[in-house]
Design goal:
By secondary structure, the chain is α+β, with helices and mostly antiparallel strands. It has one domain: Beta-grasp domain (Ubiquitin-like (UB roll)). It is about 20% helix and about 25% strand.
């Protein structure tokens, strides 16, 4: 399956790209995809526990099962003042 992963905010700076295409096996979870992304982009690893993850427009948990063609967004927590 092919999954598009989009990076937002300073994650774009850390990955040096806006998005990437990741190939995964059928039945893979969002958590497994996140681990794969961190392997490909090790600078994201230090934000592992604070990364927000969405599939399409909905936040999802790590046990969410992905489907071919899904678009995943990864971004840091929003801070305001």
């Amino acid at each position: 399956m092919k999954i598009t992963v989009k990076f937002w905010s300073y994650f774009r700076d850390l990955t040096e790209c806006d998005e990437t295409l990741i190939k995964i096996e059928e039945g893979e979870t969002l958590g497994n995809l996140h681990a794969t992304v961190m392997t490909k982009f090790p600078k994201l690893a230090k934000m592992k526990n604070s990364t927000l993850k969405a599939v399409g427009v909905d936040y999802q948990t790590d046990d969410f099962v992905l489907s071919d063609g899904d678009e995943v967004s990864l971004f840091p927590p929003v801070q305001g003042g």
